[in-house]
Amino acid sequence: MFGRGISEEADEEVHVDLSPMIDCIFILLIFFIVSTVFVEETGVEVNKPDVGAAASALDSNSILLAVTKDDKVFYGGESIGIQGVIGKIKPLLTETPDMPVIIQGDQESSHGTVQKVHGQAMLAGAQKDKISISTK
Questions:
Q1: Within a 10 A sphere around the Cβ of 36, how many other Cβ atoms?
Q2: CA dist 38 to 28, 32, 34, 35, 60, Å?
Q3: Rounded to 5 degrees, what are φ and ψ at 10?
Q4: Taking the CA of residue 5 as centre, how many other CA atoms within 13 Å lie in the half-sphere pointing to its CB?
Q5: Which domains does the chain have, with CATH numbers?
Q6: How many helices (H) and strands (E) would you count in the chain?
Q7: What is the pLDDT along the chain (136 residues), one digit of tens a residue?
Q8: How far apart are CA 35 and CA 32, in angstroms?
Q9: Which residues are CB-neighbours of 68 under 8 A, at least 6 positions away?
């Protein structure tokens, strides 16, 4: 006969093999340890300087463009629009090619307008590493 009788099963002990589950846990543990990214902190508190005193130095040594919350572009207190960026800053960049361009974006201005001003500044000849976007 194939199979066992009821009397034979009662005498045998049932064993649960946990070694495959433990192997799986160790593999997952190794995976998470290897793929973890640790954030490095400096460990010191840095006092940032007040930019109010340096604003006059920035005005004379860089090109300041402002984007308002209405997505209007200003240079020197004059509304120039996105299309006027090249015409205003290209002559300044031909005199001093490494002059930094700072785009001051309002908190409520759209990101697309700020990026368009950035692109126009690059077309005007500003060096890519000399263009900064300043927010509060």
A1: 7
A2: 18, 12, 11, 10, 42
A3: -70, -30
A4: 3
A5: 57-134 (3.30.420.270)
A6: 5, 5
A7: 565 555 555 567 888 889 999 999 999 999 999 998 876 665 556 555 555 544 555 556 788 888 888 888 988 888 899 999 999 889 988 888 888 888 888 888 888 998 999 999 999 988 888 888 876 5
A8: 5
A9: 74, 106, 109
Q: What is the gyration radius of the CA atoms in the chain, in angstroms? A: 33
Tokens, residue 10: 């009662």
Query: Whole-prediction pTM value?
Result: 0.56
| Residues 101, 87: Cα–Cα separation, whole Å | 14
**Residue type (1 letter), 56:** S
Q: Beta-carbon neighbour count of residue 83 at 10 Å?
A: 10
